[in-house]
């Protein structure tokens, strides 16, 4: 687990509270925490638990994961994914079913891209040892028959069917 960055968290919470036009007391009541405790969190004097952060996030109507990242509870590398999810979940113009479908599509694209990146990484080693045919004529050699059978079929389809020598 990463170390807590409570100063940054406190500033962020204060900014979110002011944006929501809530007083410290109103947010404390809505989150179910004491006013002095919330004040200490905002000033960076206290390290809130994940449960308290979840309650505050709910009261502010923001993603708890966003607060976890700000507090250093979640790894920074997950930040972009979490922010994207938070934006989708916070969008009032789409319903809950649509939000879940969007997140499922997002997950499938991320998995697909990760698999493609992994395949490209493992395919780079064999591509460096080029054969004489592929070096001479690009991918698959001059006719494109070794690595690109679809390209070879397309090239063959473009040739005239009746190619007599005197034409």
Please sum up the structure shown.
This protein has 167 residues and is an all-alpha fold. Helix content is 66%, strand content 0%.
How does this structure look, described?
The chain is an all-alpha fold and 167 residues long. It has 9 helices and no strands. It has helices at 6-19, 24-31, 35-42, 50-60, 64-71, 79-90, 96-128, 132-137, 149-158. Helix 2 (24-31) packs across helix 3 (35-42) and helix 2 (24-31) crosses helix 4 (50-60). Residues 1-5 and 127-165 have low confidence and may be disordered.
- Give the biggest beta sheet: none
Instruction: Please state the oligomeric state of the protein chains shown.
Output: single chain
Backbone CA Rg: 28 Å
From the spread of the alpha carbons, the general shape counts as elongated
Q: State the order of secondary-structure elements, H for helix, E for strand.
A: HHHHHHHHH
The portion of residues forming beta strands comes to under 5%
Structural category: mainly alpha
Q: State the helical fraction.
A: 55-70%
Q: How many angstroms does the end-to-end distance come to?
A: 76 Å
Number of beta-strand segments: 0
Q: Mean pLDDT across all residues, rounded?
A: 77
The number of helical elements comes to 9
